Amino acid sequence: MASVPVPALPDKPLLAVLRGERRDLPPVWLMRQAGRYLPEYRTLRASKGGFLDLVYDPATAAEITLQPLRRFGFDGAILFSDILIVPHAIGQHLEFVAGEGPRLSPRLADAPLETLKPVLERLEPIYATVRAVKAALSPETTFLGFAGSPWTVATYMVAGEGSREQAEARRLAYADPARFQAIIDRIEEVTLTYLSGQIEAGIDAIQLFDSWSGSLAPAGFEHWVIAPTARLVTALKQRHRNIPIIGFPKGAGGKLAAYARGTAVDAVGLDETVDPVWADAELPEGLPVQGNLDPLALIAGGDALKTAVERIRAAFPTRPHIFNLGHGIQQDTPIAHVEALLAMLRTRS
Ligand code: CP3
User: How crowded is the C-beta side of 65, counted as CA atoms within 13 Å?
Assistant: First the structure.
């Protein structure tokens, strides 16, 4: 019997690597690729007012998501939004103060969680952005959604702002673990809703940003990073079986292997302080990794950039690898250096 030809699905190299396939030319995207180093972003930002006005306007947020794709043709597009949309939906007041950063109130160091009134409608415009980007994205591009991990989001909700060493959240976790657990549980629940909504609107894969996982002692890391992330991954996979999840526990260092095993994420993001040779030796065999160029090497360019890129590529001779920075691209990064990086990555080493 003649077999019926199955129409080939478009090849999305980044998604293939997340599913465990090794590509000799690693797919690439850059954390914070939509943002202030791009003149077209700064122009749009200046015409629209504040950062949250951009995020809550789906047409504008979709345009910003697509800007770096048009310019550089990355393998991945990351949704333009923010990890602090979840506290906003949980009911905190949120604003971004120019030159200072985010402010959330009331802060949970003072106010009980029960005083917050959920406003889940605040998630809806983000799903509209996902649908708008999806309609415009080329079929080879992997569309990444994201959220902050419960611990990192909790550090902002407790302190009401970015804080040095996340001391207030760590203190609350020691002083009143039941109250801190309730905060983590609430974030977990709304994040599950938020990520499910993104997936239903058309996202291909998820990244969980745990930007402040590095400030916790080992027992805290187990309890507040690994355990909630593992629960979130399990719950998300129950609803959306095939969705790949990248975990990015920045600053986790030697605890990365325990994180990879304990959370069951599909891929692990490495920050620039992790030796890629160590990561290849210590992480579970075949687990895809992402990273980990120092954003400052990208600013430097030239030979420093070339050497750093080659070292990372050589460290993963057989492991599935997605090329990325070790943290977000900085505002003063020359566009020409991003172009030079892409040219290097599109040549076999
Ligand atoms: O390309 C992308 O990655 C776009 C989407 C994105 C943003 N923030 C947009 C943004 C993502 C994935 C984030 C994640 C995020 N947001 C994290 C985790 C990653 C990390 O960087 O550690 C954290 C901790 C936040 C919270 C947050 N949002 C802070 C601390 C700030 C900085 C405050 C400031 O004024 O610079 C933001 C603002 C923010 N989020 C900007 C962008 C492009 C800058 C907004 C601007 O002024 O134009």
Answer: 34
**85, 149, 249, 130: CA torsion to nearest 10:** -50
Please give the radius of gyration of the chain, using alpha carbons only, rounded to the nearest integer.
20
Helix or strand (DSSP H, E) at 25? none
Question: What residues pair up with 289 in beta bridges, in sequence order?
Answer: 268, 321
User: Which one of 82, 206, 325 would you pick to mutate in the ligand 1 pocket, going by the greatest count of ligand atoms within 8 A of its CB?
Assistant: 82
Domain boundaries, the chain: 21-345
**How high is the pLDDT of residue 7?**
62
**Upper half-sphere CA count for residue 26 (Cβ side, 13 Å):** 30
- pLDDT tens digits for range 14-70: 999 999 999 999 999 999 999 999 999 999 999 998 999 999 999 999 999 999 999
CA 325 to ligand 1 center in whole angstroms? 15
How far does the centroid of ligand 1 lie from the alpha carbon of residue 82, in Å?
6
Was domain 21-345 assigned CATH 3.30.2130.10?
no
